[in-house]
Amino acid sequence: MFTFMFLVLLPHVLLSSTNVAVISPQDPVLRIGSSLTARCTLSHGLGLHASTLYWTLNGMRLSDSTYSVVSPDILSVSLHSLNGSQQQSGDNLVCHGADGHVLAGSCLYVGMPPEKPINLMCWSRNAKDLSCKWSPGSRGETHIRTKYTLKYKLRWYGKEKECENYSTGRQHNSCYIPRNLALFTPYEIWVEAANQLGSTTSDIITLDILDVVTTDPPANVRASRVGDLEDQLTVRWATPPGLKDILFQAKYQIRYRLEDSTEWKVVDDVGNQTSCRLAGLRAGTVYFMQVRCNPVGIYGSRKAGIWSDWSHPTAASTPGSERLQSGSCDPKPGEPNSTLRRELKQFFGWVRKHTSGCSGMSIKLYDQWRVWLQKSHKTRNQILQDDNS
């Protein structure tokens, strides 16, 4: 069994040394929709006749109606309107003897030449590296192996270089350049695509590393109440550490949403401050908040970089419309937002068993508890979705 499988995978390599038979053309490369006539030619003195042979393609026997006995030693097969190769390593076209033994084999590469790569974009994390991604052309799938090479060079001088650290996904390809990048000098960057049917090149983009800087999300994001104000919360955060090394300033955005909502509201006018007061909020309501950062120019340049990812969410609740009395955590029945108040009653009931009274710490614990509770709900829902898929 092992020998047979090995022969199927590499028939033209093994059988060429034994001089049993040969298929021509050997390993052809064809466009989708093409036709092919291949011949299996037997070596002399084997005592075999071409009429006893048969063909398979990827292990499936081809119809006798596609065969033609050219001579006692030659059996041909004709294939029309070929589809794209089922595997990028090529489809196996094999000639067999009457007893099923493999006599010769060839690989068919059926596909399309690559189209010009599109949507090339690059970014630098903290001006210390460069990552680029791009998409294949409109058709995308070429059915045969296509090699993408990202190249770059300094615009006015310098040697052309190739990126080495590639990754491939369904929607796009990417490459990572970890070091030895020049600042204050523009680069020209492009992608070349090539396979056995042709090659093409993307449009060239020109960029300065300092113009495509992004960074980590702001750290240590936290939210708190503004005294007893029922409609306000304060959000504070720390500058991403990477910005401190490269003399960038930053501008920030905040987004926030109600606990039971998926709709975010964005605050754009935060500027370079590391705190912001949110006003006009609902009383007695839990809010989730996130912050992101955009590096802004160096040495006086005001050109913005690229927005970071959003920070991990933090949560805080606004005071209720009826302030809690000292020493009592029970909400009055029949008031609005009964679900939240019921949960507050349950939570503070637990607090009373383990602490004395309702301190400010209990409010903070409640906010943290709500974040944990929502994460638990999301995790459980994800597990249910995975089980159902």
TrEMBL record:
Which SUPFAM superfamilies does the annotation name? Fibronectin type III, Immunoglobulin
Q: Which Gene3D superfamilies match?
A: Immunoglobulins
Record's InterPro entries? FN3_dom (IPR003961), FN3_sf (IPR036116), Growth/epo_recpt_lig-bind (IPR015152), Ig-like_dom (IPR007110), Ig-like_dom_sf (IPR036179), Ig-like_fold (IPR013783), IgC2-like_lig-bd (IPR010457), Type-I_Cytokine_Rcpt (IPR050379)
**One Pfam family matching this protein:** Lep_receptor_Ig
Stretches assigned to the Ig-like domain: 11-95
Locate the Fibronectin type-III domain: which residues?
A: 113-212, 217-321
Location, primary (coarse class)? secreted
> Its Gene Ontology molecular function terms?
cytokine binding; cytokine receptor activity
- Kindly indicate whether the keyword Protease belongs to this entry: no
Subcellular localization(s) per the UniProt record = Secreted
What superkingdom does the record give? Answer: Eukaryota
Tell me yes or no: is rRNA-binding among this UniProt entry's keywords.
no
Give the range the annotation lists for the signal sequence: 1-16
User: Looking at the UniProt record for this protein, which Gene Ontology cellular component terms does it annotate, in alphabetical order?
Assistant: CRLF-CLCF1 complex; external side of plasma membrane; receptor complex
Keywords assigned by UniProt, alphabetized: Disulfide bond, Glycoprotein, Immunoglobulin domain, Phosphoprotein, Receptor, Repeat, Secreted, Signal
Name one process (GO BP) from the record.
Answer: negative regulation of neuron apoptotic process
Polar residues: bias regions: 314-328
Chain segments carrying region Disordered: 314-337
Q: Which family does it belong to?
A: Belongs to the type I cytokine receptor family. Type 3 subfamily.
Q: What is this protein called?
A: Cytokine receptor-like factor 1
Species this protein is from? Scomber scombrus (Atlantic mackerel)
